[in-house]
Amino acid sequence: FHQLAEQMFATARRQQANVALMVIDINRFATVNDSLGHEIGDELLRQVGQRLRHALREEDILSRFGGDEFVVALSIQKREHCGLVAEKLLDTLKPLFVIGSHALHIEASIGIATLPEDGQSPDDLQRAADVAMKRVQQAGDSGYLFFGPTMNFRAKELWQLEGELRQALAENAL
């Protein structure tokens, strides 16, 4: 994924084009593994990957990043086009997944970050898209969200506050 994404980013920079990176997380996937077993979970992930692949263009990059997380990198004309792609990906997951005797309905959360607005490298965009995806999940929703600079500021602020509280607890300073 990283090699292909780096090539896509290099081409986009030369052509002054835009690239988007999406982080897709399957909501409540752990429940599938816990209740139905890892074999069912693994097959569900295979089928999800197949559906996502069929919903994307041939030149788009799709990769599974551990657990129940997928990452997509795609060239785009405008940032707004990502919303259409995200809706298409969410729609492709709506029909039931049939695995053995189990019919499973799943939903996903998608975070979106774009080059050059949200970063200059695939790693930058992946971090930003991950922050946006977690915001969707925190809202208890499925859907998609574009990364915004205030999201990162808030995450850093919370991280700093947690560190200060831990230090205060360790020093009996509360």
Structure characterization notes:
The model has no long low-confidence stretch (mean pLDDT about 90). The chain is of the alpha+beta class and about 170 residues long. It has helices at about 1-15, 30-35, 40-55, 80-90, 120-140, 150-170; strands spanning about 20-25, 60-65, 70-75, 95-100, 100-105, 110-115, 145. It has a 5-stranded mixed sheet. A two-stranded antiparallel sheet has the order 4-5. It has 6 helices and 7 strands, in the order H-E-H-H-E-E-H-E-E-E-H-E-H. Strand 4 (about 95-100) and strand 5 (about 100-105) form a beta hairpin. The longest helix has 22 residues, at about 150-170.
Please give a quick description of this structure.
With 174 residues, this protein is α+β, with helices and mostly antiparallel strands. The chain has helices at residues 2-15, 29-36, 38-55, 81-92, 122-138, 149-170, and strands spanning 18-26, 61-64, 69-76, 97-99, 102-104, 108-115, 143-146.
Write the layout of secondary structure elements.
Blueprint: H1 2-15, E1 18-26, H2 29-36, H3 38-55, E2 61-64, E3 69-76, H4 81-92, E4 97-99, E5 102-104, E6 108-115, H5 122-138, E7 143-146, H6 149-170
Parallel strand pairs: 6-7
Antiparallel strand pairs: 1-3, 1-6, 2-3, 4-5
Helix pairs in contact: 2-3
